[in-house]
Amino acid sequence: MGAIYSKAKVKEYYNLKEDYSLEPHLTESLATSRDPDVLKYYWTQWREKSGKEIRDMYKTYVDIYNEAAKLNKFKDASLMKIVDYESSTFKEEMESTWQGLKPLYQELHAYVRTKLNKHYGDKVVSRSGPIPAHLLGNMWAQQWNNIADLLTPFPQKPNINVTGEMIRQGWTQEIMFQKADDFFQSMGLDPMPKLFWKRSILKKPDDNRELTCHASAWDFYDGEDFRIKQCTRINQEDFVTVNHEMGHIQYYLQYKHQPHLYRTGANPGFHEGVADIVSLAVGTATYFKRIGLLADNVDIEDEETNINILFGMALQRIAFLPFGYLVDKFRWDVFSGVTSVENMNCHWWKLRHEIQGLKPPSRRSYQDFDAGSKYHVAADVGYVRYFTAFIYEFQFYRALCLKSGKYVPGDPKKPLHRCNFYGSMEAGDKLREMLKLGASKPWKEAMKTMTGQPEMSTDALREYFRPLEAWLKKENRKAKVKVDWGQVKLDDVCEQAPGYAAKGKRSYNGSSGLSSSISAIVVVFVAAILMRY
């Protein structure tokens, strides 16, 4: 399945002659085109050439995985896949966590839908209901920052999209990785080993080899060889990804002294959460000023500028949360029989409507397999880790900001969202204390070492985005926008398998309620490779 995914290509839209790979061609087209017909074409064709091609293989894979789970004394594979989270109620906990975050996402969704309606008109985007998934700047609509030009609340005020300045200054892939290495070293953490610079792939090779370009960090378990494979582009989004992957490498370096079985994160979500801590600090205006990508005259205390900055971060972090949850929610439902493998594509769109508030650009079919157009599904990489990680990272970030003194609760001059702990040895010591544990302690002990409390909590995330949430509520009320997307009419969205139509005898178990709406972002650490979401 992974090989089919990595080699999938789509004919170029205008002349149907050149073959386009996902990276960079399709990714860039989804990010930059504002023509809904072009976007619909690439969105649909990618699913034809990737997910649909592995549908039958995936059905076999489900049977084999469930058989293996039963041999290991699990009821089904959905339970075997979450055992590392050390909780018998993990699915319920993830559902409860998502429900607590959903109101913030709904406010963002409503605001974005209104903006897209003004740009595209009622025929393309309705003022109510779900948003068409192909218009959000990403092949899977998992993050929406690529269409910030259509959405930014105060376009006359500065934002911190520094892509243009990176290109103007002649940044290279090597410079991007060197800057990330410098951030960790400024905190007293380890520099990248010489072999890292020699053996990593930091940009797409120009020898036409077939290569899975999905960013990944690798530990070869010899204490010396650590690598990143990334087809890095010169833009802000990839600069954040660079810092994320370097975060994985730093984790490897800190626990390399541990016995082999403990050389991993405290749970699958920890590695991703750790990797994104520095990404939050790197995304601040103060850091971009420090490295010369943002002008010194930008007033980062201006209220409208702050809303722009927080909004840009929400397009990455908040927009991602429901997708991060539903990828594994979908797989749990397939493994556990909530949906049949025959009708699983329609169940996928049921979840995408209910959890993410999205719809396909045209009616789909049970014969498609749109979940398989995502690398992590095709390659059997867990995803709920990213959902947990996006929560952990704000807990970790808050702890380091407190330790560095760059954030002071209640001080309007030092809010959480402007904290940049570059150069803080105190923050580096706190981070190292947790990283060196690897998986040698239960994850709740590692969490307590870092934050002072053992539980996963959304408090830090909600505090970070509190000014934006209040602003979104005010704007949506002013525009008289309905902050919801209504119930799904599944037969309008997807042609169901025989026997599954709305008037048929079969129905989904738990079409409402806890068991069917758990959407999980699985953060999975597979072998010694960590993938970007």
Task: Characterise this structure.
With 533 residues, this protein is mainly alpha-helical. It is 51% helix and 5% strand. The strands form four sheets. The chain has a three-stranded antiparallel β-sheet with strand order 5-4-10. Helix 9 crosses helix 11. About 5% of the residues have low confidence.
Topology:
Elements: H1 2-7, E1 10-11, E2 19-20, H2 22-32, H3 36-49, H4 55-71, H5 77-80, H6 90-120, E3 131-132, H7 148-151, H8 163-168, H9 173-186, H10 194-199, E4 216-219, E5 226-229, H11 236-255, H12 268-282, H13 285-290, H14 303-336, H15 344-356, E6 358-359, E7 364-365, H16 375-378, H17 384-404, H18 425-435, H19 443-451, H20 459-464, H21 466-478, H22 490-493, E8 494-495, H23 514-517, E9 522-523, E10 529-531
Parallel strand pairs: 3-6, 7-8
Antiparallel strand pairs: 1-2, 4-5, 4-10
Helix pairs in contact: 2-3, 6-14, 6-21, 9-11, 11-12, 12-17, 14-15, 14-17, 17-18, 18-19
